[in-house]
Specification:
Helix 3 packs across helix 4. This protein has 132 residues and is an all-alpha fold.
């Protein structure tokens, strides 16, 4: 009996799972994609900013920039019209997120530099998003 159930149910379960996996990427691009893009843009800007300043590790600068990108995306996601972006607000939110993240990852070291890395990430996201 057990073999009969396996032979009857397993092919249909496999087909259903493959169909589900195949249909997931077919969904249209959503806010999640922009969220991940902003994290990537922020991480890249944080790395570049840290390299220009000559401070911090690449990984730490990427984490600070990624956190700033996530924060900027979250703030811009609350707007009624997402196209109304403000450079000052994006830079400020990025600086705040970079400072908080830097304080968590490396307490008491280069707080101003953390703010600069986050602000650079916020500015980069603002420039790239407004260009489109």
């Amino acid at each position: 009996m057990n073999k009969i159930l396996k032979r009857a149910l397993m092919p249909s379960l496999m087909a259903a799972s493959l169909a589900g996996v195949t249909l997931v990427p077919a969904q249209p691009a959503s806010a999640d994609q922009k969220f991940l893009e902003d994290i990537g843009i922020g991480a890249g800007a944080g790395v570049v900013s840290g390299a220009i300043r000559g401070r911090g590790s690449v990984l730490n600068n990427a984490v600070k920039g990624g956190a700033a990108g996530a924060a900027v995306n979250a703030v811009n996601g609350t707007r009624r019209n997402p196209r109304n972006r403000n450079l000052g607000q994006d830079v400020g939110v990025g600086a705040a997120a970079g400072t908080v993240t830097g304080t968590i990852t490396r307490p008491g070291k280069d707080t101003l530099g953390d703010a600069v890395d986050g602000a650079a990430a916020g500015a980069a996201i603002h420039i790239i998003r407004n260009r489109k």
